[in-house]
Specification:
- The strands form 3 sheets. The chain has a 3-stranded mixed β-sheet with strand order 1-7-6, covered by helices on one side. Strands 2-5 form a two-stranded antiparallel ribbon. A two-stranded antiparallel sheet has the order 3-4.
- It has one domain.
- The protein contains 14 helices and 7 strands.
- Helix 6 packs across helix 8 and helix 12 packs antiparallel against helix 14.
- The chain is globular.
- By secondary structure, it is mainly alpha-helical.
């Protein structure tokens, strides 16, 4: 079974929207020396786009710590979120767990019932309600663009933002804002990393095995790929980062690196867990954080809410982004 199956449906259903979004993007302003990092903007190879799940796999599946049994097809239902641990989160609104046909897919499918999210999207647990609502408005208006508009997560979120009502948006934002974020990602400094491939818009270990130098990258992979494919919201991720990057990022966040950026605490709070409608940036997915920094730096995200971040990211190098995000992800959310 290929976990990309529901996303393939999403692509087909959103083809017109994808074309419109791509056409609306201005010419790519990023320099050849600093392209969108492939490890953060993970894209499935075109050759896999036809793949679907194994229809013969109809047996119930189980995961550790849960009494729930679900088939593979059930774990891939965009309108009935697989909820392995319903006792570990408060009752969720219908838009989160079931969405609304035809185009309002359930929020919890990608962001998971407990809000931890996965590298292709975002962790929503504990983010300010007002901030979440502003992002929905940004997707609707096109202000929240991206350097890779063909990414299915971006296409899907744009379509969902336009399909849901304001009341549904408020219900989802209120629910996720009420959740307590949890440590979901283990950060490991290392010189070498497992060789990876892209599967379902996420990096995973290459089945052929092997290792390679990390270079100036962050490699974020599931701690347990099989559990992640089953949408287990208690199975987290590993983030491999370059040696020394956490310390370099800590200095950047605290001092601005001698003018290359600004101290993060001024807006995001002393523990970098947000304040007011300013979001927490501690303990979040490094892939997602890098995409956001990159998109703001190169003008793909616009609007009043983003304006304060523009001078913060303007002078960052690719190495600065890696170091800063390595540090942020290492923090307690």
């Amino acid at each position: 079974m290929n976990p990309a199956f529901p996303r393939v449906i999403l692509v087909l259903a959103s083809l017109v929207a994808a074309t419109a979004i791509a056409a609306a993007q201005t010419a790519d302003p990023f320099p050849a020396a600093d392209p969108p990092p492939a490890w953060a903007f993970a894209m499935d190879p075109p050759a896999t786009a036809h793949m679907t799940h194994d229809a013969t796999d109809t047996a119930p599946h189980h995961i550790a710590g849960s009494t729930v049994a679900l088939t593979r097809a059930q774990t891939q239902d965009l309108f009935d979120v697989p909820d392995w641990r319903p006792d570990r989160h408060p009752p969720a609104p219908g838009i989160v767990m079931h969405g609304r046909r035809p185009g309002a897919y359930a929020c919890g499918f990608c962001h998971l019932p407990n809000g931890t999210g996965i590298p292709e999207n975002a962790s929503l647990a504990g983010l300010p309600e007002g901030y979440i609502l502003k992002q929905i408005v940004g997707y609707r208006s096109g202000a929240r663009g991206t350097a890779r508009p063909e990414m299915v997560s971006h296409i899907g979120m744009t379509g969902i933002a336009k399909a849901i009502t304001d009341d549904e948006a408020k219900a989802a934002a209120h629910y996720y804002a009420s959740l307590k974020p949890r440590t979901w990602i283990k950060v490991i400094e290392t010189v070498t990393v497992p060789r990876t491939i892209v599967k379902a818009y996420t990096l995973v270990r290459d089945p052929a095995g092997g290792t390679e130098p990390i270079g100036d990258r962050i490699i974020e992979i599931p701690a347990d790929e099989a559990r992640s494919e089953l949408r287990d919201d208690a199975s987290g991720y590993l983030a491999y980062v370059p040696p020394g990057s956490i310390a370099r990022g800590r200095a950047l966040a605290a001092t601005g690196g001698g003018g290359r950026t600004l101290a993060c605490a001024a807006c995001h709070g002393s523990a970098l867990r947000g304040q007011g409608d300013v979001p927490s940036i501690a303990g979040r997915s490094p892939s997602n954080l890098v995409r956001q920094l990159y998109d703001i730096q190169y003008g793909k995200r616009t609007g009043n809410a983003v304006a304060p971040m523009v001078p913060v990211v303007a002078g960052l190098t690719a190495g600065d982004r890696v170091a800063l995000v390595a540090y942020l992800t290492s923090l307690k959310p």
